[in-house]
Structures are given as C-alpha cells and as structure tokens.
Amino acid sequence: MQIVIKKDPTAATALVARIISLEIRKNPSCVLGLATGRTMEALYEVLVGEHRDHGLDFSLCRTFNLDEYVGLPTHDGNSYRSYMNRHLFTRVNIDMRNTHVPDGVAADLEAECARYEALIKKYGGVDLQLLGLGRAGHIGFNEPLSALRSMTRVKALTPETIAQNSPLFGGAEMPRLAITMGVGTILEAKKLIMLVTGSEKAGILHKAVEGPITSMVTASALQLHPHCTVVVDEAAAASLEEKDYYRWIFDNDPEWEPFRR
Ligand code: GLP
Description:
There is one protein chain. This protein is α/β, with parallel strands linked by helices. The chain contains 8 helices and 10 strands. It has a 7-stranded parallel β-sheet with strand order 1-10-9-6-2-3-5. A 3-stranded antiparallel β-sheet has the order 4-8-7. Strand 2 (31-34), helix 2 and strand 3 form a beta-alpha-beta unit. The longest helix has 18 residues, at 9-26. It starts with a strand and ends in a 9-residue tail after the last helix. Residues 35-39, 66-67, 132-134, 140-141, 161, 165 line the site of 2-amino-2-deoxy-6-O-phosphono-alpha-D-glucopyranose.
C-alpha cells in the first residue's frame, strides 16, 4: 500500500484524476471500476474537464460500478446508475453499452449478482478500481462483518450508512439493501486507488490503513492488495501515525517522480 497526502481535497482529487487519465491513455480499452459518493463528484468533474480540454478518450473504456441500491430503477435520480450518467457517462465519449452498474430492480437479485461477477471476468477483470471510504469503514457497500473473500451479493445497510447517505435522498425513504461487489471482488482488481478527503474520515482512515485487517473495517482488507494507492488530503490524514514516512516515500520513490510536479 502507498499512502499519498496532498494539501487539500482539490490536490488529492487532481492526483487521482491524473492516475486514472494515465491508465486510460496507456491502455485505451482498460476496464475501470468506478465508485459513487460525494467525494467522487469532484473527481468526475476533473475527468470530464480532461476529456473536454485535453481529449481524454473514453470511447474504448469499459466500466463496472461497485454497487447499486436495491429497488431503485435506472431512472430514479437517487440510483447509482443515474448518478453515473449525470456526473460522468453523459459528459464524456464513453459508449453507454460499455458501462455496467448492478441492476437493483432485477427480479432475481442473486442471479443478477452472479451475472455481474461473470461479466467482470468475461472482460478480463478490472484493471484499475476506484474506491471511496464509507464512514463505517466500508468499501462499496461491504458493511462491517462482510467476509473478506465475499463476491458480489446483496447486503443490508447499517444504520450508520443509512445516516450517512439519507441526506442525499432529500427526505425520500432510502433503500435498506444494496447489491455490492464483495471485498473479494475488489481485491481481484489489478490495481486499486482509494480517494479519501475531509476530517470526518480521519478516524476511520487511520483504522483502515494503520489498524489490523478486520472484517469490522472492510477497507482494512486493502492492505492485502499488492498494488493499492490511497490518496488523502491533510484533513483526512490528521490521525495517521506515520505521515512523515508516507511523505518520504512520495518524495523519494522514483515511481512518483512524474506526479511530484
Ligand atoms: C457510499 C458508497 C461508497 C462510498 C461511500 C463514501 O456508501 N457505497 O462506495 O465510498 O458512500 O461516500 P462519500 O464520498 O459521500 O463520503
């Protein structure tokens, strides 16, 4: 795992956008794993700008989103499919047929989860998986006690996650279940990149990256991945114990040379 601390959310977001843009430029038909949430809105804005101003080409990319609420159809403004269409897909030159989000209104949810897993495999697996961090320490909707080898399945949301996300529903009742890639699915991606900003994530970020690996904090499973980068701002980094070490790595590892400027 590599941890990169940037001074503010804008700088952290810009670094993640550069890493994703580089991945697309190196491999135009890459398979991207995508995430939702407030943190990602700014990131998609930067990627849309990269497409508009610097010709970042999404035409051959394929995408798989981490999760979707159960019971929300595509056209519901609160579904993650509509979030993705709004923030990214309709604003870049991606082929909509190459964008995949679990179907939260499938008649057979178990079959939908199996179909989604199979589809990821069919396209050779995810090359670069983007992740946010939930307040309960979750990645995707892998709530506390999610098996660290779990694959795509239906999960019940915790009260903490419901409290975190219900303001986004503007008073409407929010779903209690979601389809999510499992922790095991996420760990199968070739590379992982997690973006975490804001002081409210400081405590849980510390547990996730410096604490023990535990199903109580599913983001801690990222410590098992051989190519995982965690990009954070100073506010989110506030509780980290080894900040100087992370800074030293970023300033000295030749791998980061192109990203230091
Ligand atoms: C939801 C999503 C996660 C996301 C998390 C953080 O729970 N399922 O994938 O990382 O929210 O969201 P925010 O960026 O709004 O804090």
